[in-house]
Structures are given as C-alpha cells and as structure tokens.
Prior knowledge:
The protein is α/β, with parallel strands linked by helices. It has two domains: 6-193, Methylthiotransferase, N-terminal domain (Rossmann fold, 3-Layer(aba) Sandwich); 214-377, Transcription Regulator spoIIAA. The protein contains 13 helices and 14 strands. The chain has helices at residues 55-58, 79-94, 118-130, 132-137, 148-160, 176-184, 232-235, 244-256, 283-291, 311-319, 337-343, 357-361, 365-371, and strands at residues 6-7, 70-75, 98-99, 108-113, 142-147, 166-168, 191-193, 214-218, 220-221, 240-241, 261-265, 298-302, 328-329, 376-377. The strands form four sheets. A seven-stranded parallel beta sheet has the order 1-7-6-5-4-2-3, with helices on both faces. A three-stranded parallel beta sheet has the order 8-11-12, with helices on both faces. α2 (79-94) links the parallel β2 and β3 (98-99). α9 packs parallel to α10 (311-319). The two termini are 41 Å apart.
Amino acid sequence: xxxxxxxxxxxxxxxxxxxxxxxxxxxxxxxxxxxxxxxxxxxxxxxxxxxxxxxxxxxxxxxxxxxxxxxxxxxxxxxxxxxxxxxxxxxxxxxxxxxxxxxxxxxxxxxxxxxxxxxxxxxxxxxxxxxxxxxxxxxxxxxxxxxxxxxxxxxxxxxxxxxxxxxxxxxxxxxxxxxxxxxxxxxxxxxxxxxxxxxxxxxxxxxxxxxxxxxxxxxxxxxxxxxxxxxxxxxxxxxxxxxxxxxxxxxxxxxxxxxxxxxxxxxxxxxxxxxxxxxxxxxxxxxxxxxxxxxxxxxxxxxxxxxxxxxxxxxxxxxxxxxxxxxxxxxxxxxxxxxxxxxxxxxxxxxxxxxxxxxxxxxxxxxxxxxxxxxxxxx
Length: 379
C-alpha cells in the first residue's frame, strides 16, 4: 500500500473524524454535466431535469457537507460510463448537490474515466495536470476520478497527482456520496476506493439523465470473456447479473419519471442471467417482464456477441416486437479466422451466429420478414 494514500475500507465504517470546515455552500445553478462529446448534457433541453434549488429534492437525505455543492461531471467512454455518471449524479442530487455547466464554476470536478483506448487515458492525465495550479490556489476545490482508470490505475493516479481528493473504482460508485462526505470531514487524501465488491447497488436512485424521455439501464456488470485486446474484465471484474425484479423495479421508476425508451446495457448482453441460473433469468425473460411496464414504449439492448446470440432471443424480439426494437448491435471484430484466434474471440468467420442464425432458424414468412428489416449492426 502506498504511503499517503488512504484506502476506503479503513474509512467507510469508521467513526468520522472531526469536521474540518465543511460548511454547506449556496445552492448551485440548475445546469449540467459534460458528455464525452462536448458540453452540458445531463440537464436535457432548457435544464428541465434539474430543480433550481437541488436541496428541495433532497429532503431528509440532504447532508450538510454535500448539499449545495456545485458539481461538474465529465464522462469519457461507453454507454456504461454514461449510465454510471447519471446514477452518481442522481445520488449526489439526492444529497442536495447541484450541477453547473462550466468547469470553472465547480466546487467539485468529477472525471468518469475510460481505459479502453489510450487516447481517453491521455486526455484525463492532461486534464489532471492542468488542474494542479487551480488546486494550489484554491485548496477547497475538490477533484474526483472514478470509473475504469480509477480501478486500473488508482495507485498511480494517487502517486502522480497527490492533489486529487477522491479516486473511486467501478465497484464502489454507489458509495460516492459517503466517500465525498468523508473527504469533507477531513479524511486524508487522496482517498482511494477500489475494493472489488461483487455488485454495485444504487438503491432506488433515479438517474439524472441526458434526455428526459430516454434512459440507460445496466443489467450486467463485468465480463467473463478474455479477449486478448480488451481491458474490461480487469477494470470491471467478472460478470455479475442483476436479478430480474431489481431491473424491473428500476425500469418502473424510470417510467414513472417520464421515460418511454430504455437501453439495457451489458458487456455481453446475451449472457445476462448465466450467473443467476438460466432457468430463472435470461435476456428473453427479462424482455418479457419489461414489456409489461405501462408507459414504456421502446426497449433496446447492447452489446451482443456472435457466439452467444441464440434463437430464443430472436424469437422473443419477434413476439414482443411492439416494444422491443428490431435491432442488434453485434461487433464481429474481424473477418479473418487467424485474427479471431489471436483475439481469442471464441468463434470463426464461418460461425452461423455471426450472420444471425437465429433468423435462419425461425420458420414462417412473417417471422423472417419481421427479422430481415435492418436488424443487425456490426462494428
């Protein structure tokens, strides 16, 4: 363990140290979160997702060390990262934090990071280096790094950028407000939280979304594949599925909050439920349960794997076609068997599943006609 880095497992359940100047701050302007593309996003058009006074939503959950804090959140990477950002924003909103459109106006700047591409990591390192001067002249300004880089490079980030206050890995995101409170109470920083707990539980939090009527919904975390080029199994851990009642409950909360379209997220969405027992939980059964939610009009899911996409999924898409969209995102990765072996993808170019053998297996003209309309997208 590094000198000067305080690990979270020593802190989360300890008696809090004496407060060190964590007075509540003025309510933040009701604006946004930065997306990987450009500027403020999570507010929606006209900032309608956020209340003018975020503490009005917090009720008894408001914490004096979080309420009114002006937050700016920058997200790099995939849809899973967007979901994590939206959920962390929701958790902070419940505690009374607000969000600002400009990074310079923030009292807490959060980077949700990606390790899939070196360019994304370089951008984070560049941003952290740039903030050194600001932190030196404003010690009360807080910096947090969360997500895949935090999980994979947390110790190095803490060593290279000792002025970062909080580093939170992929399996500790639900603890973010509590960790922030500990920093405000005077915990030694950088506070490092990268323990690999089996699941991430966001409770009954409603995400602070980019779009009012559309939402991401994570149904699995981690990945059991071991593709030679991919870092995901090492940053997000082994695959863990959420129970169907848990997923349905979150979907109902989203529908009650105005969502009409959800995108189910999983690194390999087709293997949903394998760890829960396929007879109790699988993707077709989950789609059937979500199909019953009143107010939900469109259901999508990503990402499929050529080796795992089976006939029962295609049939469920046909049977539930009034809500489940006729679209599958399936990265084939390569058309070379030699390259596929080197990538450890587990299939060859001749595998029927890479062309959608589920569609071939369905008999009947109407089924084939339904499934032939622009269904498959490949990277």
